């Protein structure tokens, strides 16, 4: 019965999103948790269209020359969040290297529209690297998101092969700028395993994220979305995810959520609530 209810929720939410000309990364990236999240309901809204200017080899989002961003997109996201009764909204985007502002101001507009139409709703942004421009990172933070998330995705050695166009040091700079610019904002990042990384490289990446001031780290198993993406090199056993979480916390990272099905926005609302409760105690 519960499974049928989730399928019904999934269909209804998809119909509503298509009517508003909206996409979600849950659908575009073929997230394995989509039925669970859509039944809550929660969704990670994908802004700036559905076509990415980069060609990350793990990602199933469409690549190519994007259209100009929709003028109505920020309001449509805010209205969808209102109609769904969302108390926590996650906003992400494709990478738009073709735009002068790399899409940063569409994030700002969307944050403002969501705030206006949904007072009291918390907001998480999951951003691209904005071409490594500190001014754009700071502009997005000035709009006041509760959580600033930027994923490093994989270990340093694999970046050139897995994420052409991206750079691990640039991503770590983005996270460092975010924490330095807005110390009160929760800074978050995540990465996948199963792409050919080694244990010692995972430890190095965790230390780098700690040094960047990241508060929350998510770790999940890479699962090949379609045959067009890079194959899985290794499926790590669940016990390793528990070990990495414990090690990350021992290094000083406040919260590590780690498991085979964990994705960047998985249980995002619950994590924010838990982190706020911890801060209130301390």
How do the helices and strands line up, and which of them pair or pack?
Elements: H1 2-19, E1 23-24, H2 25-28, H3 34-38, E2 44-47, E3 51-52, E4 62-63, H4 73-84, E5 88-93, H5 104-117, E6 122-126, H6 134-142, E7 147-149, H7 159-162, H8 168-181, E8 186-193, H9 199-211, E9 216-221, H10 238-251, E10 255-258, H11 268-281
Parallel strand pairs: 2-5, 3-4, 5-6, 6-7, 7-8, 8-9, 9-10
Antiparallel strand pairs: 1-2
Helix pairs in contact: 4-5, 5-6, 6-8, 9-10
Summarize the structure.
The protein has 282 residues and is α/β, with parallel strands linked by helices.
Strand tally, please? 10
So what's the CATH class? Alpha Beta
Give the helix/strand class.
Answer: alpha/beta
Distance between the termini: 43 Å
Question: Would you give an account of this structure?
Answer:
With 282 residues, the chain is α/β, with parallel strands linked by helices. It has a single domain, classed as TIM Barrel. Helices cover 43% and strands 15% of the residues. It contains eleven helices and ten strands. The protein has helices at residues 2-19, 25-28, 34-38, 73-84, 104-117, 134-142, 159-162, 168-181, 199-211, 238-251, 268-281, and strands spanning 23-24, 44-47, 51-52, 62-63, 88-93, 122-126, 147-149, 186-193, 216-221, 255-258. The strands form two sheets. An eight-stranded mixed β-sheet has the order 1-2-5-6-7-8-9-10, sandwiched between helices. A two-stranded parallel sheet has the order 3-4. Helix 5 (104-117) links the parallel strand 5 (88-93) and strand 6 (122-126). Helix 4 packs parallel to helix 5 (104-117). It starts with a helix and ends with a helix. The model is unreliable at 1-8 and 33-39 (pLDDT under 50).
């Amino acid at each position: 019965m519960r499974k049928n209810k989730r399928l019904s929720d999934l269909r209804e939410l998809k119909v509503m999103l298509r009517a508003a000309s909206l996409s979600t990364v849950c659908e575009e990236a073929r997230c394995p948790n989509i039925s669970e999240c859509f039944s809550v309901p929660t969704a990670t809204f994908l802004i700036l269209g559905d076509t990415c200017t980069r060609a990350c080899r793990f990602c199933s989002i469409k690549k190519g020359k994007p259209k100009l961003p929709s003028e109505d997109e920020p309001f449509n996201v805010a209205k969808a969040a209102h109609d769904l009764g969302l108390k926590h909204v996650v906003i992400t985007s494709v990478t738009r290297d073709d735009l002068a502002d790399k899409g940063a101001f569409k994030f700002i507009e969307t944050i403002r529209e969501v705030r206006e139409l949904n007072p009291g709703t918390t907001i998480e942004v999951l951003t691209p690297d904005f071409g490594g421009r500190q001014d754009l990172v700071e502009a997005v933070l000035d709009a006041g998101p509760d959580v600033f998330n930027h994923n490093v995705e994989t270990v340093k050695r694999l970046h050139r092969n897995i994420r052409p166009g991206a750079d691990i040091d640039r991503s770590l700079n983005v996270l460092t700028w975010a924490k330095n610019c807005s110390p009160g904002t929760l800074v978050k990042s995540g990465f996948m395993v199963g792409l050919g990384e080694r244990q010692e490289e995972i430890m190095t990446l965790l230390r780098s994220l700690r040094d960047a001031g990241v508060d929350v780290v998510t770790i999940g198993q890479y699962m090949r979305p379609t045959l067009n993406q890079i194959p899985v090199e290794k499926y790590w056993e669940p016990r390793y995810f528990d070990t990495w979480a414990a090690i990350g916390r021992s290094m000083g990272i406040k919260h590590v959520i780690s498991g085979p099905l964990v994705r960047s926005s998985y249980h995002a609302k619950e994590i924010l609530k838990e982190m706020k409760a911890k801060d209130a105690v301390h």
